[in-house]
Every structure is written in structure tokens, then in C-alpha cells.
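Slide 14.
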Amino acid sequence: MTQLPWNAKVYRNRHGRGMRTPMFGTRLPRYRTRSGLFDDLVVAQIRRLSAAWPELVRPLQFAVEDVPPSSPAPWESEPRLCSQAFPAEHGSPARIVLYRLPIQTHAANRTDLQLAIRDEIVASIAELYGRRPDEIDPDFGL
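Slide 15: predicted structure.
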């Protein structure tokens, strides 16, 4: 089983000086990378929506990528920079992909980042199921 990068123990023997350990503990906030923090915020939003709408969220797959592809999907007239929703087809489940760097560049602080992630996930779920986003989450867009 693979470990997350921020949970892996990385020790280096730099210039033959022996074992080195991290300068601060792995549970401290400074140890977390921006991508690890983003992944945690995505998981928190998925859990929150799964508690409210388990029948809508459970069959979906979620993924996080750094940047969107350079060409839009064939069915999209305009490329979506922050996320894409792929409908289920040929035995593969529906998938929602969030793009980390575009979302992070538009967010000024952690609260804005949480709200942007929430809005992207809710908009993608609504797009897949043909519903309005405020039906999925009444706080959408606030």
C-alpha cells in the first residue's frame, strides 16, 4: 500500500553526515503541502455532500489533477478551467475531475478555497444529474 507523500518518512544522508529527520513534526500545519491541503479540503466536501446525498455521491468517482488538459472535451463548447464532469459510459462510472492550480489561483485565502471547491463539486454533480446546483446545496454560490 502506498503512503501519501506527507506521511512518508524521508531521511537523507546528505554529504555523509548521517540520518536527517524533518525539522518539525508531521502533524504540524507547516509540514503539509499545498496539494495535500487541497486534497483534504476536497475530501471534506465530498464527505459533507455524501452525508446529505448518499445516492448521488456514492456512484461518482472524484479525482484531482494539477492543470486542465489543453484541448476541451468534444461535447464542451467552452473549456472549463476549474473542473470537468465526465458522464458514465461503457461500464465506467461518472467522474468529476477538479483542477487544483486554477482553483488555488482564484482563491485569496483558505476560506475562499473551501468555498470554491464546494461550488465546483456541487456544480459538477448538478451538471451530471441534470439538477440545479441550489437543489444539491442550498448555500451554492454564497
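Speaker note: The chain has a mean pLDDT of 82.
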